[in-house]
Amino acid sequence: MEPDRSIGMLEICRILESKNISLKKFKALDLFARKGDWQTYVYANQVATIEAWEILPEFEAELNQNLPNAIIRITDSILELKNGFSNKYDFIVLDNPQNTFGENHEYCEHFDVLPHIHQLIDKKAIVIFNINKNPFNIEKYEKWENRRNQFYGKEEPKNININELAHFYTQYFLDFRLKTNFNFAVFREECKPLDYLYYFVFEIEKINYYD
Ligand SMILES: C[S@@+](CC[C@H](N)C(=O)[O-])C[C@H]1O[C@@H](n2cnc3c(N)ncnc32)[C@H](O)[C@@H]1O
């Protein structure tokens, strides 16, 4: 049976509401939207505006159907960011594919998006991204393994503890002069017996915004 992929995003929305954060005011950007029916639809009709980007044109019609209030763009999100796209959003979701991806496997997980995230933020934003804490079968994918080693700065970045990861990303954002106001993780998927996929939710804010 297909897993219900909306559960994690529903939980995120519930936790944000419990923090008195209303989704209503947000300008949202979903960088990897597919058909939008796994989890984007959960928050799409709650935010003020939403743009949903997806690389594959065959998903466009269903995206329009599933996210009737969204501006849909068929584009390479990572290339857009690399080319300097800098419109501002305050709710940014990166539901990227796992492993390496792209025509020449030039991209990996969220590693090519996060270095550009500050471009998309005016003052502060909620950023939601996938964390793969147990990449199963990674030994079969040398490029993936190398990219993870490079990104996390250690050999064998497997079964990383969630607290350690929260600390890692807090430091990571600081390098881009983004401080973390709060963060939390929400379980997403398991490949029994391993839990592997989590959402990380970070509220990050530009340091010295008014300087
Ligand atoms: C995990 S799925 C996203 C699921 C979606 N959030 C939902 O709720 O249904 C990842 C999507 O990213 C798309 N994708 C892969 N590379 C991309 C890129 N460079 N730019 C934009 N989308 C990309 C894939 O085609 C795939 O549809």
CATH class, named: Alpha Beta
Q: Please work out how many helical segments DSSP would assign.
A: 6
Return the CATH architecture.
3-Layer(aba) Sandwich
Total number of domains: 1
Radius of gyration: 17 Å
Q: Say what the CATH topology is.
A: Rossmann fold
> End-to-end span in angstroms?
53 Å
Order of helices and strands: HEHEHEHEEEEHHEE
Q: What percent of residues are in strands?
A: 25-35%
Strand order of the largest sheet: 3-2-1-4-7-9-8
Let me know the average pLDDT: 93
The geometry reads as: globular
Ligand inventory reads: S-adenosylmethionine
Helix content: 25-40%
How does this structure look, described?
With 211 residues, the chain is an alpha/beta fold. It has a single domain, classed as 3-Layer(aba) Sandwich (Rossmann fold), CATH 3.40.50.150. It contains six helices and nine strands. The chain has helices spanning 7-18, 40-44, 60-66, 77-82, 142-152, 162-174, and strands at 27-30, 49-54, 70-74, 91-94, 100-101, 107-108, 124-132, 178-191, 194-206. It has a seven-stranded mixed beta sheet with strand order 3-2-1-4-7-9-8. A two-stranded antiparallel ribbon has the order 5-6. The radius of gyration is 17 Å and the shape is globular. S-adenosylmethionine is lined by residues 32-40, 53-56, 76-78, 95, 97, 101.
Task: Tell me the layout of helices and strands.
Layout (H helix, E strand, L loop, with lengths): L6 H12 L8 E4 L9 H5 L4 E6 L5 H7 L3 E5 L2 H6 L8 E4 L5 E2 L5 E2 L15 E9 L9 H11 L9 H13 L3 E14 L2 E13 L5
Bound molecules: S-adenosylmethionine.
Characterize this entry briefly.
The chain is an alpha/beta fold and about 210 residues long.
